[in-house]
Amino acid sequence: MAERINAVKTSFFGKGAIRLLGPELQKMGIRRALLVTDRFLYHMDSKNTDYQPETVECRMKYAKVFHAKRHSVVWGGVSQVKAELVLLKTAVAHGPYQHYHLISGVDLPIQTQEDIRAFFEANPDVEFVHFDPHPFSPFNDERVYYRHFFQNIDLRRHPVLGVINGILLSGQKLLKIKRNQDVHFTKGSNWFSCTDGFARYLLTKEEWILQVLDKTFCSDEFFVQTLIAQSPYQDKIYQGPGDTSARAIDWDRGNPWVWKYADLEQLKASPCMFARKFDIEKEPELVHEIERLYAPHI
């Protein structure tokens, strides 16, 4: 049976960024990932100067860790896509593996190690990718059909540049400067589990991905869905109970919702393998209870 690898992408997500890139990512992201893999691939934003690879490795009691080449990652920029591609390329080079799982430091497994392994073993050629059920909105049009010039700046922290970016977008619309019109974009969550076959297929499209998505906004939520929907793998997307990504993510109550202890029974009843989003500072009892239920050896 092929081994599996969890490819963990970490990047700046606003106020919680420093916490995710520090000890709590190591505690939540690494320790729980040991539940589902004996190979662990890790990417840390190059802007995090406190990161020490040896600290990660010393925590690995049950798994071997690989470190992907570090890149500076900016929320909303195409650098997020580049980081995922670097992770996937590094993972494939250490493979082949049956599935590659992209998770973050605020994700947790919500099944036992045995159940997660059995689930993926029962679905060896299945792709687990989320698709947004809502129609493609004008806001999403703006994200991929017009140029966002401040790719290396988190506009949430620079509101003046955000205003300038809005003016530039309005000017492009006024002048009808619309690009990528021959691409049918599809959107969903950027966290996925894919087979070795699709991983390699995706990497053959790297040049197209970076060319088409240059100066787009939050395109990590588009490129996997867009490519798989127009590929030979489209009929392999998971259609079982729960979300098609095998991840419990609540978009109805938040963006996404941060799970509370009151949601514990809902999480326990979920058929999904993983869940997000968790906050160990705000809901430590929930995190520890999930650890007790699904990772008593950690």
Structure description:
This protein is an alpha/beta fold. Helix content is 37%, strand content 10%. The chain has helices at 17-21, 23-33, 53-58, 79-93, 113-121, 138-145, 159-174, 196-204, 206-213, 223-228, 264-269, 284-294, and strands at residues 5-9, 39-43, 64-67, 99-103, 107-109, 193-195, 247-248, 274-276. The strands form two sheets. Strands 3-2-1-4-6 form a five-stranded mixed β-sheet, sandwiched between helices. A three-stranded mixed β-sheet has the order 5-8-7. Helix 11 (264-269) links the parallel strand 7 and strand 8. It is globular and about 60 Å long. The chain starts with a strand and ends with a helix.
What's the short story on this structure?
The protein has 298 residues and is of the alpha/beta class. Helix content is 37%, strand content 10%. Residues 1-27 have low confidence and may be disordered.
Question: Which helices and strands, and how do they pair?
Answer:
Layout: E1 5-9, H1 17-21, H2 23-33, E2 39-43, H3 53-58, E3 64-67, H4 79-93, E4 99-103, E5 107-109, H5 113-121, H6 138-145, H7 159-174, E6 193-195, H8 196-204, H9 206-213, H10 223-228, E7 247-248, H11 264-269, E8 274-276, H12 284-294
Helix pairs in contact: 4-8
Provide key terms for this protein:
298 residues, three-stranded mixed β-sheet, 8 strands, alpha/beta, single chain
